[in-house]
Amino acid sequence: MLGSIPDLLRLVAVPVFGWAAYRDVKTRRVPNRTWTPLAVLAVVLLLWDAYTVWAGPTAVGQRLFFVQVAISLGFVIPLSYGFWLIGGFGGADAKAFMLVAVLFPVYPVYYLPMPSVALPLQQSAIGVFSLTILSNTVLAGIVYPLAVAAGNLARGRFSLAMFIGRPVAAADVTEEYGRLLESPDGFDRGGLDLDALRMYLRWRGCSLADIRADPDHHRRPTSLPAVPNDPGDGSLATDGGDPVADDVEGPADRDAGADETDRPAAIDDPWGAERFLDDIDHSAYGTSPAQLRDGLDVLAEQDEVWISPGIPFLVPMFAGLIVSLTYGDVLFSLLQAVGLA
């Protein structure tokens, strides 16, 4: 496969994005240092291309290139940042798409060892490659709920949550990533984030098994420890985020002789939810006291719950990148097929 040197160097992004997608599935954490070398490479290659085009013979080609770059940088980067601000993207997702905007502003070209065949096969009319990656990523993300629903249907799992979730044993949810899809009132897409649950359990120094064994005791805020633990970041990983310590103290490990009524806690704060969220120095993934209380009520009483494991956005992004580099713009092809492009 032959192409210009900058375009060939851009292929370095493929294994990096593949590794980041794998890491996102396993840990939901991607180190910031992942993107730094690619960001440097992206800037260098963009300047390289800009100089090559500027020194080129045609003014039309120069104007088109700089318009496409302006669209990529001026639209995709603010869009990614905006989605991060409103919580639609995680930090790694936003950084990855900002990087895509700089690394792939225009279509690369890779010539195959056969006559007149070059990848990507299908280009869009506007010619901004980062927009092609974005649209292919969205289409790849749409496939996910259909696959989830098909899997639940094949297993005879029927629920309002069957398109976005799967059932798991309530006692095992601390070994999962995702979000509860239940509240005491039934199906709820805005249920408790499981990372926030792990933070809460670590903060108060107990396990979910402890809560399920005696929910009435743990529901009373007087059961909270006088000196809570560092909640960490809720990750299951031991090499990404804050590792889970083996020496976390439980309530029995400290102040064992203290009278629970002497511990500062509000009697109108079931589960100590408000105290937890007030005590930590950062957000528990946007969790509210009501979400935490409802989630704990559900997990304390039910044997099986539905969770939405979600799909880390870097996974469809990686798929969108691969499809974009090979086939090209799927959405543009679909619009052409129905006469809209």
Account of the 3D structure:
The protein has 341 residues and is mainly alpha-helical. The chain has two domains: 5-146 and 313-337, Four Helix Bundle (Hemerythrin (Met), subunit A) (Up-down Bundle); 165-308, no CATH class. The chain contains 13 helices and seven strands. It has a three-stranded antiparallel β-sheet with strand order 3-7-4. Helix 5 crosses helix 6 and helix 6 packs across helix 12. The longest helix is centred in the N-terminal third of the chain and has 27 residues, at 59-85. Residues 238-266 have low confidence and may be disordered. It is found in: Cell membrane. InterPro entries: Preflagellin_Peptidase (IPR052218), Preflagellin_peptidase_C (IPR009655), Prepilin_IV_endopep_pep (IPR000045). It is a multi-pass membrane protein. Residues 13-143 form the Prepilin type IV endopeptidase peptidase domain.
Note the main attributes of this structure.
3-stranded antiparallel β-sheet, two-stranded antiparallel ribbon, 341 residues, single chain
Overall structural domain count: 2
User: How many β-strands, per DSSP?
Assistant: 7
Rg estimate, integer Å: 25 Å
Shape: elongated
SSE topology:
Elements: H1 5-10, H2 13-27, H3 36-54, H4 59-85, H5 91-103, E1 110-111, E2 118-119, H6 129-154, E3 166-169, E4 179-180, E5 182-183, E6 186-187, H7 194-204, H8 208-213, H9 215-219, H10 273-279, H11 289-301, E7 304-308, H12 314-326, H13 330-337
Helix pairs in contact: 2-12, 3-5, 4-5, 5-6, 6-12
